[in-house]
Amino acid sequence: LYIRVYFNQSLMIWNIANDTLVQEWQNATGCGENSRTGSYYDGYFYSREWSAPFSRMDVANGQVTATAITPSEGHTATDVNPATGDIFIGPYEPTGTVFQVYNVPSNTLVDRAPLPVSVSNHSTVVFVPNPQ
User: Fold this and answer.
1) Where does residue 34 rank: exposed (0-12), middle (13-18), buried (19+ CB within 10 A)?
2) pTM exceeding the 0.90 threshold for the entire prediction
3) Could you tell me which residues come within 8 angstroms of residue 124 by beta carbon, excluding any fewer than 6 positions away?
């Protein structure tokens, strides 16, 4: 499991097979606790603060770099398609309806069709590869 640490963008890597901490990387960059943004793809953990761009942390050495990709909504929730590198971004503020996808390999952000109802704070996004 890749776990963003409370109130900042530090990262814990947890082995669920034996319930042990594998690694912890410190990143003092603040992150409000309403944020549900945190996704792993291809060796990097992506997170962000309310109105900031995504940052990515190299899980091998803890190095953090900015991506310059800033979703239009704040307090977002994310999940990733591990096959494509699409990070799905659930909205909250200001509209709660702007659904976006950040494609990591191409470093592009795309607006999808607006959600039919506004999503509220503390919502979650879950990617399911083959829904039944």
Assistant:
1) middle
2) yes
3) 36, 77, 90
